[in-house]
Amino acid sequence: MNLRHVGLIAKKELRGLSQERTILLAVLLQVFIAVFSSFLMVGLASLYDPSTLSRSVSAEYAVGYAGNESPLYDRLEAAPGLRVHRMDLSVAVQALRERKLSAVVYVPDTSPSGTEPVKLTLYTLQNDITASVLNVRLKGVFEAYEADLRGLRTDRIEERPLPLRVPTPRGAEFYEFVYGLLVPLLVLMPAIIAAALIIDLITEEYQQRTLETLLATPVTFPEALWGKIAACLVLVPLQAGAWLVLLGLNGIRVAAPVEIVLHATAASAVLVLLGALVSLHYRERTSAQFVFSTGLVVVMLLALAVPANPLNLIARLSVGSAGPNHWTVLILVTGVTVLFAWVATRYARTVERAFLEG
Amino acid sequence: MHPVLTIAKFELLRSASQMRRDLVPVAVGLFVLLLLVTGFAAQSGMHLSDGLYTVGVDDPAFASVLANDPRFVVYQADASLLARERGTLDLVVVGGQARAASTPRGQAAQKALRQVYDGYVASVYSAEPDLFAAYPLWIDTEEVKSEVDFSATASGQQVGLRPDTSSPTPEGTVEPVSEPPAGIGVTAEELRRELVQDATSDDRLNRYTDVLQGGTMGEFRTPAQLSPPLPFDSIVLIFVFIFPLYFTSQFFMMSIMNERIDRRGEALLASPVHPALVLLGKGLPYLVGMLFVSTVLLVVLGAPLVILAVLVPVILFFLAAALLIGMTARSFKELSFVSIFFSTVATCYLFFPSVFANVHVIALVSPMTLVVYALQGTPITLSDYLYSTVLFYLVAGVLFYAGARNFTEERLFSQSRPLTRIREFISSALSDQHPYASLFLLSALLIPFVFMAQMMALTLFFNLPMPWSILLLLVSAAFVEELAKSLGLYALFARSERFRSWRVLVPAGVAVALGFLAGEKLLLFATLAQITESVFGTVLFTSLQALWMPFLLHLGGVLIVGAAVLAGGRRGYVPGLVLATTVHVLYNLAVLQGVIG
Q: Band of the pLDDT at B371, cuts 50, 70, 90?
């Protein structure tokens, strides 16, 4: 294989990309997502863990208290962010309907130390963000009251869990979402774009009937194929690196950027070669994309089901807890790449022979 | 057979003949493989956040509890060794006390430890013979429907926040509410079964599947189970509906693109059938396919079929966009990039507002909010439907019109630059005989796009702190309007030397301003009444109070851009646009001062 020819084809494809300027859209997209990641942080992170919502809203909520006297009233009164009012149940519920209260608690006449459970009734507003925020606050109060009641009934409990005191964590709401989900997925996006690109580059030669012209030049088909693959792969570390820089600008620092980019590039080499094989076989964009996308879902699911998969390693590398084992996985993935590369090259040779003979 | 059906049949046959013979068996094989892998993944779990934290434990019993969570790498050692190694670990648990490193990772590990410990405590207590000693407190949640509508939250009025200490007194008549009975009415064993089920199932995954099954938990919860009643779960399901639609519209895009390769579409163009009918026929199989897939999904998920009515405008929008992308892309690469870009922006538009379903009226910007409502069992009113889907219907219609109008040899096989092509497409809507009438119509037709762009800006900006959200909204709204108004005029000037004169400028400007105003008024009165009542609406649509003031404003903007283009040629366009936007923002600020202050 003539490396100069490979480089020539790669340069031609990259020039084509930059001339069409539509690759700017991919860049624009990256910036678009990065700029609005503040939104992603609030919106998506609460989707991942709804209890984060309570911190973003700091206000005092009025709560109605009806029914029997209980230590719960004092607990509610002592809780920050809540204001309790002793009220008649019917009046309180009507006040809730008019949004003058944000919740009503009804406490029945049950003995705290008896055999029956204490059943509270909590009235909240249907379909309202207040209910979500308030539930988080009330949960803590109720848990404290539950502990009180449990204390009163403690001699009837046979096996107690091992005691453990865990201090309240500070500012860790988004940590797992960002590093355990966002970073690996964002870094993988360039790999998927690169794989879509190789399908376009190969099927276009067939469908626009430019393959004959290409093969009439001194460039062989395997060389042309590798030129295209190289053009796609060059973009991956650039895009992945850009993501890491953008994340850094947003205050999300990533521990081992170089290793992450290496893993992303190796993983996308597998995907790009897979895309190349599929499009060499189908020679037509619609079929190739259909088979590749379905195959991609299979490969991704399979990878995620295996411990120490590249996505997991990217997450661990980004928080700095990967250990040296990730090199082994990187070598394994590279091994798969080499295998695929060999198959793709052989396939390209067969295609060329068939083309020249027939 | 109707020509549309004939073309639809032809489209189906051709795409079948283009496939290689092994595509169907391969697809079936991949599908089987997908099922197998899904089963395997469900068994072994998702290993995405494995081994994020390191934790040292002195108690072997705790070590085995923590080892159940793959997020932790657990080391068991005696207390003195752990004390020495504290610096290298995220978390140390010695003598029943957890100590975390003060790094962000240490704090996150502590948060994860809490979750694991809570789960462990629940598993011990739920095995207790006297369940009501271990779980003495149960909560029954009753939801009350608010009498105050969304406009209360939209105008920034907070709920239940009162500065005074006296009990609130309701204004309406108090209906007697019967006191709930003290008894729980369910046996301890039933509750225990639910507790165990709740503890063993994967919490995060369960939340998403539960939405459609009505939840596994009964009405009674322990305090620990009191999680916020958020609509977010159903939002995740939105992706399940959108992805197949996006996927199928890709095929349509490709089919259109294929007509342009090697001038294959000549045969279709030569047929005596109107281009609109040709496109309808070509799109029909995909439309039917998308409806079919959606119906199957709804039936499989057990979701209400009303959702189909919400998906129809989204499907039409996707198909119309696919048509135009397929007609304009110059190469496969361009097709990929443009379609990825379009789908991301469209997904943002559909997804972001529905995060605020149940919270803010803004949510209704996206039809997907209606899907959330339908999944929750909230009734959808006709005005809700109209409000959130009308833009999709209109934009789809206008895009389809543009596609049909430009389905000609000249447009399909041209290879000019994207911006030139956009200008050519717009220019096709103008007529040489009636330039002013067509400018009027074009401006009115652009209104749905303007509203969509403004809605997008609104959803992105409204959660920023107050002065910024208003300011950014003002500038972006003004810019979008000025851009839309100038498009027709620019296309007219570029069309022919005849129109590029100062004599044309004023009547053309009047036509554009009138068309814009008419379209804006019509659409606003039809649909957007809810948004216009909030403070954001005042910002977006200030120009609607009186008729002659906004007319002068629109006219002024068009004249500025037009004059800049006449004076400076193509290079004058951007500065003209900036100047017009500035004037527009200043005008809106002045009106706003009068409205608010």
A: confident
Contact at CB, A119 and B228, closer than 8 angstroms: no
Number of domains in chain B: 3
Residue B378 dihedral angles phi and psi, to the nearest 5°: -75, 130
> A222: which 2 tokens?
């395997």
**Is there a single domain that holds both residue B422 and residue B450?**
no
Nearest to B131 by CA among A142, A120, A148, A153: A153
Give the mean pLDDT of A331-349. 94
pLDDT > 50? residue B331: yes
Q: Which of A338, A310, A314 is nearest to A257 (CA)?
A: A314
The verdict on residue B41 lying in a domain is no
Residue B597: per-residue pLDDT:
38
Kindly state the DSSP code that residue A276 receives in the 8-state scheme: H
Cβ A171–B160 below 8 Å, yes or no?
no
Q: Chain A residues with CB inside 8 Å of B159's CB?
A: 99, 102, 125, 128, 130
B424 and B521 housed in the same domain: no
Strands, E assignment, chain A: 61-67, 82-86, 103-107, 118-125
Residue of B nearest to A40 (CA): B352
Predicted confidence band of residue B151 (pLDDT cuts 50, 70, 90) = very low
Q: Are residues B464 and B574 in the same domain?
A: yes
Percent share of chain A, pLDDT over 90: 24
Supply the range of the domain harboring residue B121.
53-125
Q: How far is CA B441 from CA B400, B436, B437, in A?
A: 16, 9, 6
Note the pLDDT of residue B214. Answer: 39
The CB density around residue B20, as the number of other CB atoms within 10 Å, is: 14
A20 touches chain B (CB under 8 A): yes
> Cα angle at A45 between A41 and A47, to 5 degrees?
135
Rounded to two decimals, the pTM is: 0.79
d(CA B557, CA B546): 17
Q: Are A224 and A9 in contact (CB under 8 A)?
A: yes
Whether residues B226 and A39 touch (CB distance < 8 A) is answered with no
- Which one-letter amino acid corresponds to residue B200? T
Q: Give B-chain residues touching A25 at CB under 8 angstroms.
A: 337-338, 340-341
With an 8 Å Cβ cutoff, is A324 touching chain B?
no
The answer to whether the Cβ–Cβ distance between B108 and A176 falls below 8 Å is: yes
pLDDT tens-place string over residues A297-326: 899 889 988 888 899 999 999 988 888 889
In chain A, what are the domains? Answer: 3-47+173-357 (no CATH), 51-156 (3.40.190.10)
The candidate with the shortest Cα–Cα distance to B364, out of B381, B347, B346, is: B381
Could you tell me which residue, A145 or B222, shows the higher pLDDT?
A145
Cβ of A42 within 8 Å of Cβ of B128? The answer is no
Question: Comparing C-alpha atoms, which of A164, A168, A161 is closest to residue B96?
Answer: A164
Integer CA distances (angstroms), B589 to A214, B469, B474, B597, in order: 60, 14, 8, 11
Which of A166, A263, A317, A326 would best serve as a mutation to test chain B binding (most B beta carbons within 10 A)?
A166
Choose between A171 and B409: higher pLDDT.
B409
